[in-house]
Structures are given as structure tokens and as C-alpha cells.
Amino acid sequence: MEKILVVEDEPDLLMGLQDNLEIEGYQVTTAKDGQAALDLAMSTCPDLILLDIMLPKLNGFEVCKQLRQKGMDTPIIMLTAKSQEVDRVLGLELGADDYITKPFSIRELLARIKAVLRRRHAPPQQIETYQFGDVKIDFRKSVATKAGRPVELSHYEAGILRLLVTNKGEPIARNRILDEVWGYELYPTTRTIDNHVVKLRQKLEDDPHNPAHILTVHGMGYKFVD
After folding, report:
1. What is the dihedral of CA 59, 64, 65, 70, to 10 degrees?
2. Cα dihedral sign for 93, 213, 195, 184?
3. Pairing mode, if any, of strands 27-31 and 3-7?
4. Distance between CA atoms of 47 and 61, rounded to whole angstroms?
5. CA atoms within 13 A on the CB side of 110
6. Sign of the alpha-carbon torsion through 35, 37, 41, 43
7. What is the pLDDT of residues 195-226, one digit of tens each?
8. 57, 34 Cβ separation under 8 angstroms
9. β-pairing, 48-52 with 27-31?
10. Three-class SS string for the chain?
């Protein structure tokens, strides 16, 4: 059962959304202000967030911004009575996945929810080979060359690098690396990830102490840039 967090401060609309979503088979959690939304999003890890813009304590734009800064990539659909283009653009620039203006039909909202979830669950395109600088990587064999010399990568080193390269330029939280590279059954500590990244830099960066490609995002995780 997919979980949806609904963030709305209008009681009647909140109740109506919850009822309709539960009828469709979703598990629904609700919040009435921005701070509660942040706390629930981080603690319950929903599959999708319906986020009103005009909220007490923190508005929806700020909630969206903070969630993305914390590394949460959960799809967000913004709900608002505003229809100005600048508001739509701002929401999308902050990391929202879609935007729907009140009043809206429940059929339209459900269709958008299904479309966003379908995109999220689509299997990512697998990168088999990649090149940056004087480094060439074959992810299928977990091997690389640097300046023409062979470099052997461990299974987990190759997995981390593949995830970072696939999401080039995007900060990837340590918890996401744990989920996608190690999996739920074999959780190491986040320190294990840091050790693997150190080894990757030693093998692939020209200056491991001042990396140009495998960068630390402080308080969150790592990202890859060419």
C-alpha cells in the first residue's frame, strides 16, 4: 500500500482528500502546517506528498526546499489557489514534481498522482560505461582505467560510483546510498560509505584530498560532477 502525506490547512478539503485517497487504496497521513509536514515526511518516508503552498509556520515552498536540501527525493505535488506562472515555476525550481491549482477535480488529482508514482517506479536507465577526465569505467565488470592503467573497483565502490554518475550533479543522501547499493538486508553504517568514497577518490581522483568529481555535500552525502 503506497503512502501519501497530505499537507493542507483547510479542514474540509483535508478530510475530503483523505477520504478519496483512502477509497483509492492509499495509506494517508495528514499535516496541517509546514513544520508538522517536515517532521512527518522525514519520519514516515511517504511515497508521495501533496503539499499546499499557503500553510501556517512554514509555507509549502519552504517545506519543499528543506526536504530537497535534506536529500529527500519523494515526489511532491503542489496544491494552491494561486495560478500565476511565477508560482508554478518557483515550485518546480525548488524540486516539486507537479503542480495543480485549486479548485481541481478529484479525478484530475488522482490521475496526476498515478502519473507521478508511475514515473518514480519506472526502472532507471542503467549506465554500463562512463568516462570523465582520464578515467574510463566499465560498470558491468567493476573495472576502470586511469590514464590507461587498470584500476580494480570493489562491488560496492562500483555501485556507489554508478549511483552518483547516474544522478550526476544531484546530491545523494547517505541513506539512499545504503538503500540502493547495500539494500535493506545488509545495512552497514554511514561511516562505511565514507570509507568507500575515500578509496574511490584515491583510485580515481588526481588529488584525492581535493576531489574534482566525487564531492562531499556536507551534512547529507555526496554528488558527482564531470
Report:
1. 130
2. positive
3. parallel
4. 19
5. 14
6. positive
7. 999 999 999 999 999 999 999 988 788 999 98
8. yes
9. unpaired
10. CCEEEEECCCHHHHHHHHHHHHHCCCEEEEECCHHHHHHHHHHHCCCEEEEECCCCCCCHHHHHHHHHHCCCCCCEEEEECCCCHHHHHHHHHCCCCEEEECCCCHHHHHHHHHHHHHHHHCCCCCCCEEEECCEEEECCCCEEEECCEEEECCHHHHHHHHHHHHCCCCCEEHHHHHHHHHCHHHCCCHHHHHHHHHHHHHHHCCCCCCCCCEEEECCCEEEECC
Query: Would you call the peptide bond into 171 cis, given omega within 30 degrees of 0 as the criterion?
Result: no
Joined grid coordinates for residue 1:
500500500
Give yes or no for a contact between 64 and 90, defined as CB atoms under 8 angstroms apart. no
Residues 6 or more apart whose Cβ sits within 8 Å of residue 88? 99
Residue indicated by cell numbers 568514497: 197
pTM of the predicted structure, to 2 decimals: 0.56
User: Does residue 185 register a pLDDT over 50?
Assistant: no
For cell 503506497, name the residue.
Answer: 2
Q: What pLDDT, on the 0 to 100 scale, is given for residue 122? A: 61
